[in-house]
Amino acid sequence: MKNPLTKTIVAMSRIALFGAVMQCLFFSLLLADETADQPQSINDIHLSIHVNGKVVDVFNQIEEKTEFRFSYNKTLLNLNNSVSVNVSEQSLSDILLSVSRQSDLRFRRINESIHVAELRRKEEPVSEEITALQAMTVTGKVTSRDDSESLPGVNVIIGGTDKGTVTDINGSYSIEVPGGTAKLVFSSVGYVTQEVDVANRSIINVVLASDVKALSEIVVTALGIEKDSRTLGYATATAQPAEFAINRSPNVMNALQGKMAGVNISAMGTGPAGTTKIRIRGQSSIAGQNNPLIVINGVPIDNTNFGAKINSAGSDASVGPRGGGANADAGDGLSSINPDDVESITVLKGAAAAALYGSRAKDGVIMVTTKTKGDGKGIGVTYNMNYTSEKPLDFTDYQYDYGQGEQGVRPTAANPTSGQWSFGEKFAPGMTQVLFDGVQVPYVPVYDRIDKFFRNGQNFSNTISLSSGGDVGGFNLSIANLTSKGIVPNNEFKRNTINFGFDYNLSKKLKITGNINYANERNTNPPNIADQDNTIPVALFTMANSMPYDLLDEKKYDANGNEFVYSRFRNRTNPYWTLAEVKRNVVRDRIFGNIAAKYDLTDWLSIQGRLGQDYWSRDDDYINYPTGQASRAVAPAGFVNGLYTQESRRFRELNADFILNAFKEFGKVGLNLTVGGNHMYRRSEVNSTQVQDFVVRGLYTVQNSRVKDPQYSLSERAVNSLYGSAEVSYNSMLYLTGTIRNDWFSTLSDENRSIVYPSVAGSFVFSDVFGTKPSWLDFGKVRVAYAEVGSDTDVSPYSNLLFYGINANLFLNQPVGNISSLTVPNPNLRPMRTSEWEVGLELKTLNNRVGLDVAYFDRTTIDQIVSAEVSDGSGFTNTLINSGESEAKGVEMLVNLVPVQAGDFQWNFTFNATYVETRVNKLLTDTPGDRITVGTHVFNGELRQVVGEEMGQLAGFGYLRNENGEKVFGANGLPLRTPDLIYYGSALPKWYGGFNNEFTYKKLSFSFLIDFKLGNKMMSGTNFNAVRHGLHKMTLEGREGGVVGEGVNQAGEVNTVVAPVQSYWEIVRSQALIEPIVYNGGYWKLRQITLGYDLGSLFPDSFFIKGARLSFVANNVLMLKKWVDNIDPESFGFNSDNLIGLESTGMPSTRSIGFNLNVKF
Amino acid sequence: MKKIVYYTFITVSAWIISSCDSGFDELNTDKTRPTAIDPAFELNNAVLGFRTYSSLIYDMGIVQQIISPNSGVLTGANYNQDNRDASDDMWHAYFRDVIRYTRDVTRLTESVPERSNLYNMTRILQACAFLMLADAYGDIPYSEGGKGYPDGVFFPAYDSQQDVYTDIIAELTAATAALNAAGRIETADVLYGGNIDKWKKFGNSLLLRAGMRLSKGRCYKSPAGGAGSIPGWCDYQSGR
Hints:
The complex is a heterodimer. Chain A is mainly β. In chain A, the strands form 13 sheets. Chain A has a 22-stranded antiparallel barrel. Chain A has a five-stranded mixed β-sheet with strand order 16-21-22-19-20. Chain B has helices at 2-18, 24-27, 39-48, 59-67, 75-78, 84-87, 89-109, 116-137, 161-178, 196-214, 218-221; strands spanning 140-141, 158-159. In chain B, α3 packs antiparallel against α7 (89-109). The longest helix of chain B is centred in the middle third of the chain and has 22 residues, at 116-137. The interface between A and B is large, with 71 and 71 residues.
């Protein structure tokens, strides 16, 4: 209802309906008031009728001769049937009976009206009479719940009859009901039908709630063109502010998790302002980018990802930090958007939907429309406040029977180095342990590591917006700030945004729209995740289970101010030391927006020009390794060790486009032609200096260093495009759209840079075929679409040549040259090509109380740019070739139900689910089993693409088994591993979706969302460490006396060799035998609970507050089901598809609880 | 009015179509990285590529066993098992950091008489790297090794260890002999500053080492038949 166009359409249809109803539907009823007296019974009235013609002629004669009026629905009945009535002084009852026989109509007289309806099958001809009840008149007014304005044209029907009236232009009605026990049914297009008991009241005022689902939806399609959803031959999904602005997240898309069919959203477990990973209909690229394009008001913006462990070959859309030690998720391009500025989010899912965006839309498009005008005249002020508190969740279920130590021995002397091992002794009362420099403490379990280290996070945001709207235009200006404190005590994200949108009709023909968004984002100390050094979660999750945390904090420094060595595994930096020493500051200033002018040349031809830009500068400085870190080698004499990086990036993306649009109707045939062109230019620069070892301790600057490594790089690319689209419609029922686009890529060679791709889509609204729609079918449509898209996203600029470089520092006063890449360049790369089929069905039945939208899609991506592994013996590791082929097939569906609708109470139920299976058909060859490794686990295991298998195969060594499936053990009693890596299955979820239930009662609404992701395998690094360090409960086996593995030895005899317990479980590391830590990565979660109350009615009309809504929100409420031990399967930190399923400890997930207050002045 | 708009549109479209990829070649030219450098600087990188890498010997693991419980990644040595991490280190490092550069230098200097000394110095260093690889791994990609760019040999054939040694000896002999103190001295060289005597000494020392690899196998079976470059040494040439 927020969309002005939607609103116009609702208003128009309401008025049109009002007129139509006035004319025909209840024609006679409106005239019936003329007589006040009760007429006689139809058995007592005798008259003569002579008609040899139409039924309607009989009615006319009766109406002339009596005071009765016939009432009927002209659209439902056929009154042109011929009848023959020739009677003299017959009772009216008999006359009607005769007509009934001849025309299959039934008649019922109530008071002064004769209601005509169709004769039901097998029914005897009917002419009946109901004794007039104690008639009474009911009056009242119908208003809209949204804006409290009166509603004209609302049908008011007496329940159980077809008698009724409509409200007048002021929303008022007056109706005579047969008695005080009757029911009135109020219905209107776009509103939820309401039934009210008369209950002897003579004044009944009714408030109707809008029914968004029933509306003819307006969808924002490619290039920002708005279309009626019935014309679309492809699937889209749209989210309204209620779905993302109330129960919200700092990154706007996170709030939509589980709510959109076909869209897989994962919030990374990486702290506030972390990346949002969005995958639409699976994954198409074998080893590159699968991020959808982000478009704001029709123009793309940048979504460069600074996530943890980017590891994506051959793409410049992801930027990782330099040097080791820095492994934080420093955000993406979506984090600059304030949810309060967004009017709607539409997802274009398939290639056909996105065809007009061409190459960049291979993975779908997220279309964000921001607010450009207010609702009413005058300046409206809205204030929104949102506060949530985030509690870190502890899913660890470790063993607390045996404490710190190795080989069954607890630490008993100063400076123990078993701080990360829990293979010590069994806890017993009175035992002590000696830690650090000789502190003696009780040897007891220390529980609740998560609560002891982390704090509760907080998000607090405020938005004030001013808006105005009128006939000639409007504007929306908002100022907002967000402060988000992460659960790591030194982590904070602050965002200030200003958004200005406007929309102005300079003349009747010229319209200007524009929007500009400024965001200032400061991310302080985004936490490192999923790696060894400086990574709080990894070290904390593997900390020995009897380590006292206050002591760990107190003893973090040794006598020289360096990290105190508490573990022989020095890469597990003491988390308190990390907290105190590892710092990072990310500051981004960003301004993006576009301005468009549209000129109507004639009433059927318009031209639009548009210019959009996204510019940001981003300063990032981080301490890779602080001075004194235990895992690092000491610096040469005179220096202290350490590694520090300072970088500054500037990015600009420019889009200029024009669109010429013609729309004309020729009778029943409509023609809509669009021709346009786009120029995209992107430039990215980075100045970065990394320095090693310092002169003055504790001063992290590039000047104060021993070895300096400055770098500058510049990357530019451009895509020029021309496109056209033609839509032919017939009778607003059948639509056929074809598009064609030609892209020219600067990154590809002369011969390969131009590529043309077509799309065709059809839509057929079959429910409109019937002259009279079957009563059970409100809306029905089938869609078919086919599209091709090409993409150069996996080709970086300049990948046609091999470049040299000169090392930053001279060696013995001589330059050292390098070859800048281990990838052999390929100047003949072609853009990859995606072709996609989709068919879909939309149905609405039972007064729009049941809605269904199903789509089947089959997407094949060929000529994928594979970073093929080559023999190291060639001197190189990879080369880029066009070879890969993958296919994603699936079904997505959305079901809307209104199971209960009674008076003020309504229950809306929405279910969406997606099934998608992606297979690799070809890599270098199409031989099944042919493979490439795309990602390796921080600890052990790999992610591979394998021909003939589902995408994203987890690979690692498993237990060696004999032909009977028994494990085989070596002479030392340790399990043997398979000769080569084996596959454990795909890490991509096959099923995902959610169930949303929304209950509204008067001003109160309550909703909860359950979502799920299923069918994915996960190699859990957290459990890998928990097993090797003796924390996992499975390592309790064999603590006393060692493990005798169940199985056989190499000779085939039963294994009887006792293996030491620690060595036995350390096989996950020593032999990379990871089978014990491969899990089902699926989950079911109670994702969201929202309880809202409309406070608006509490204030008198004259009060300065016009409306207010308070909502209590909770997010990530409850884990209903999971399979992986010790972690939330979602606390996964990698955005890259090359690392999917390779879990390594990320930040614990959090449950957020808070409120949202929205006040309108 | 209409006409103006149409003409404007046609002109604009024509302009756009004709210029849809104009300037792209220039745009796709990297302005910050060179496509050619003095190959002597690459030789320096190859020299720096000679470092110690964790080897197949597991010495660290064995030593550590004495001082601490030998577990985790170090069990490879303890239980005589293959730890993938350790065994491929040297292979990766020498092919990527040495051979990749020496092949590029020899490609660029082979037919440049002025850089003859650089060419032959590089051959000596390359022979040294191949010698170490053959020592560690046996059969290795040799004649085709390191030719990923620009030859596009992505899966080089393996040569037998014996053939590798034999050819290394030939290479060292030829390269050492071809060094010419009267030619251009490669002063940028970080190993010997381009000093021809030192490079000759290096080449001859390596020849001695390479010859020892064949002392039992080849020369014993095929007694001397001609004069070798080192007095008293059997004739490796006859072993062919």
